[in-house]
Amino acid sequence: MTHASGGRTITNDDLFALRVIGEFQVSPDGSRAVFVITRTETEQDRTVSNLWLVETAGGVPRQLTTADANDSAPRWSPDGRTVAFVSDREERKELWLIPADFGEARRLTHGSSDVSQPAWSPGGERLVYVTKTDRPASDDPTHAPKEGSDVRVITQLGYKMDGEGFWDGRYKHLFTVPTTSGAATQLTDGPWNDAQPTWSPDGARIAFVSRRTPDREWTNVSDLYTIPADGGDVTQLTKSAGPVAAPAWSPDGTRIAFVGHDQPPETGPTTQDWVWIVPADGGTSTALTRDYDRSATGSVMSDLGAGNGQYPIQWTPDGTGILFVTEDHGTAMVARVAMTGGVGIVLGGDRNCVGFHAANTTLAAVVSSMTLPGDLFVANLDGTHERRLTDINKEALAGVILPEPERVYVPIGEAIAMDGWILHPPDFDASRQYPLILDIHGGPRGQYGASFMHSFHRYAAEGYVVAYFNPRGSTGYGQAFTSALTGNWGEMDVHDVMAGLAYVLQRPYLSAERVGITGGSYGGYLMNFLIGAYPDRWKAGVTERSTLSRISSYGTSDMIWRSLDWEFKGPYWENRDSYWDRSPIAHVEKITTPLLIIHSENDHRCTISEAEQLFTVLRRLRRDVAFVRFPNESHGLSRSGKPAHRRERLERIVGWFDKYLKG
């Protein structure tokens, strides 16, 4: 659609014209950055990812790998002459090496499972990586699959994972491989997964994360361990009460930083992550950011996924501080905590710093906003002299009008306000009347804000005003705000969202009779609840990857049961009334809103049985409802699904709202 100013509005095709920056790393001397660009091949209905290089002083990016494949996880060698990366160009994801000054890539590993999380040894002679072992975890013949049988024998929780499918009985462990030639060496073993390996500065030890407690099947507790680089006894460094992640050695090798929390009884698994340090030989762990009332991890939700895969913390070269990503009021920033105490913002602003990496005196970050899909920026380590290195979507977005959203502050309680945003159509005219689409984010531990949302721009391009909020339970507003929702699902969140809707409907250009509602995952759960609680408020609804019953989702999800034990103050057999009353199914007979149900058939997070229940009940009640099932897709359809499916999803959402809000 051409705009009066000469530009045009965004289309579905633009989603697939956009290129997305993934993982990236700065070279050891700080002079170059290697990064992943993913593009869409619509005719083949797939995406392709390759590595690119750019000088941090500025210049034209150059493509380093050209295979018709998916390359990821680029890692500079210590001397800056070689880049290791993961690629699926032959059979499965294996580890490859390529000269940083261009040349032919060379395959390094030849395993039976996908490789991930590579890291160079300080001397550059080896790499450590994570992959599955060849043998199944159990030698018990009663649990082993029978030859020629496709039957699965399940004996423990965690037997499936969204995006991965059913567990094959093999665990992920650490391996090393020489960078010249030779066989890989397995370092760790056992009935648990090991992950996130990182070398000590002297190359003698490797730190990693694992869940090895006796009750690991039922908890989220993980710990930090080390192992000699040539193999040997594993040393446990932490004795955590909660999850830990992202180990990072101090430059002098005496300490290891990590992120996590200790699940204090008042906030449990909703506790914000902190930056910690622990002596490299073991001892007492110290939380450096415990008094900083924001999480030491986080980002802003997007439907593109720019910057995915970055680890969240890194020591400054002089060892006096630790860099990390934090979130605040709909933004994500790079911050620094000093060893002497105190947190300062290094890269801030009303934007989403998705991830970062630092080397020598150079700090790089992928930055996005509602009008910027994501580009690579660099600065000095203190955040000064910031400059933009890439403009990868200059051609794709040439002439496309991307309105800036208006931020609003909605009172939701005594001395409490909720952030919200209103996105207007590109040709907005305040003298006209517009239909409204209210979108509820998932999680609920997450946040909307200063990050690119193609779908929101699409709705606006079709003449809708879009409103979205961060109700209590969202991250980015401190511990009390995040944890307030615990025990209050279906009450506090309903209050906040309805307060936000009432606030924006005061605008005279909004038609109160033409309000649509949508949400995905937790957002779908909440909108299912809202259309039952306020059946006369909505003209149409679209619920995606949602749940209808907290009781049935407890037993069918890959992991929801663990969070529900906390959120609902115990398992459902100890608290049936609360689970039932806070489930949309308890009020489903009140739903009269015309409803489009969108769900992926391979969604293991919020299983398709939830959508099947909702559709069956509403049709039994003779309601206006349609059920769209996407085969071979997971919970992340809107971000990582097949291009053809992502296109059809958008077409069906807009078509449904057009039918009921414009008809």
What would your notes on this structure say?
It is a single chain. By secondary structure, the chain is of the alpha+beta class. It has 3 domains: 19-146 and 156-188, Neuraminidase (6 Propeller); 288-395, TolB, C-terminal domain (Neuraminidase, 6 Propeller), CATH 2.120.10; 406-662, Alpha/Beta hydrolase fold, catalytic domain (Rossmann fold, 3-Layer(aba) Sandwich). It is 15% helix and 34% strand. It has 11 helices and 38 strands. Strands 31-32-34-33-35-36-37-38 form an 8-stranded mixed beta sheet, with helices on both faces. Strand 5 and strand 6 (82-90) form a beta hairpin. Helix 6 (550-556) packs antiparallel against helix 7. The longest helix has 20 residues, at 643-662. It is globular, with a radius of gyration of 25 Å. The model has no long low-confidence stretch (mean pLDDT 95).
Q: What structural category do the secondary elements indicate?
A: alpha+beta
Percent strand:
25-35%
| Number of strand elements | 38
Give the domain tally: 3
What percentage of residues falls in helices of 4 or more residues? 10-25%
The average pLDDT is: 95
What integer value in Å does the Rg equal?
25 Å
Strand order of the largest sheet: 31-32-34-33-35-36-37-38
Task: Give the CA-based shape.
Answer: globular
Cα-to-Cα separation, first versus last residue: 20 Å
Largest sheet: 8 strands, mixed
CATH fold name of the largest domain = Rossmann fold
CATH architecture of the largest domain: 3-Layer(aba) Sandwich
- Briefly, what CATH class of the largest domain? Alpha Beta
Name the CATH homologous superfamily of the largest domain: Alpha/Beta hydrolase fold, catalytic domain
Poorly predicted residue ranges: none
Count the DSSP helices.
11
